[in-house]
Structure formats: structure tokens, C-alpha cells
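Deviations from the work plan: none for this task. Representative record:
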Amino acid sequence: QVQLVESGGGVVQPGGSLRLSCSASGLTVSNSGFHWVRQTPGKGLEWVAFVRNNGNNITYPDFLRGRFTISRDDSKNTVYLQMTNLRADDTAVYFCAKDWGWGFQYWGQGTLVTVSS
Amino acid sequence: QSALTQPRSVSGSPGQSVTISCTGTVTEFGFYNRFTWYQQPPGTAPKLIIYEVTKRPSGVPDRYSGSKSGNTASLTISGLQAEDEADYYCCSSTGNFSWVFGGGTKLAVL
């Protein structure tokens, strides 16, 4: 049974940084691509990062402008999202999701990030 | 502003069918089969219900069906049930490993 568990969310000041973790069980992260997707009340779902199973293809939407970095630790079976220079409009629930069929097959329960002074 | 446009809300009575549309440009629809749909009941994570335009993952009832014509994809739910009440999102993989979602549609079962 596949389970993805996100952690690391919280309250951070504008300009600050935060690292989110996505711990996987029931699958091996190195065998699959993984995404981070966020959800805000005003904007719905928004894709923010992807790492392919080979680890060599990593992509982000243009609007992030290099502020977020996705990575993977195969020894811990965990995927990360490092977020820097955070802004108020980054406030959202962040989900990790397994890639499959050109979409998102399994999702975690999400972790809330609040950017506020 | 989503590149994929969905109606904000749709509604139907139990037993009826409803169709949710998702309209975009050639950018979102240039890769024919890279289209997915997600169901999100209140307070839960999204769930994949349609992949590659028309296919259903194991466990998804055949009441859910997907289709595409030109630059519009559609999700049809037949035999509406109370449990179908949720938000529904379309998503396209637009090439070069990037993805874009629609704005979401709230389905009310009256």
C-alpha cells in the first residue's frame, strides 16, 4: 500500500526559507517521478516541481524563478522541496504526488505553509 | 489565472449525468494523451480519476468517463450519487515536463 507523508510546513516570515519532506512507503522513490503541487483557496491546484525517476530531469514552472528546489534522498526514500525567499502568495497546502500516466497517481495529505510576518 | 478554463460550478440531481468541460489552447492540447482529471472531496487530497484523456485507474467506477475534442476535454459523470459531490480539476502535461491545472469545478448533487 502506497503512502506519502508530507512534513515540514509551518509559519515563516516573508523572505524566509523552509524545507518540506515527503516520506514514501510502499514504493521506491528512485523508481518513480515525483511532483510537488500546491493549493491555495484563490488559485486552486498549482504544479510547482517535478523530478523524474532518473533524477536528471528536474523542472519547475517559470513563475517560481528559481526560488524552489526539488531533490531526492534515495537512502531515506524521501523527496524534498526547498523553498527560499518565500512570499505571502506562497501560502498554501503543499502536496507531494507520484508521477504516472502524465499525471499524479498518489497524493499525500499535504502540509500547510503560511508566509506571514 | 489558469491556462485551462473550467466552469466554476455545475450541479445535477441523483441519477442524472453531468459534464464538466476544460478548455485551453494548442499549448495545452498539443500532446493528445497527456490529460488527466482529479476529484477532491472537501478536506481531502485530490484523487486521480482519469488519465491519458479516457482511461480510468483501477477502482474508479465506470460512471466516470473522459473525452476530448479539439481544445476541449470533458469529464462526464453518469448516474450521479451524493458521494460525487466534490471539486474536479483537469490537468494537462504541456511538454518539456511541465503541467498546468484548470481552475476547478465544484459539483453539487442536489
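The radius of gyration of chain B is 13 Å.
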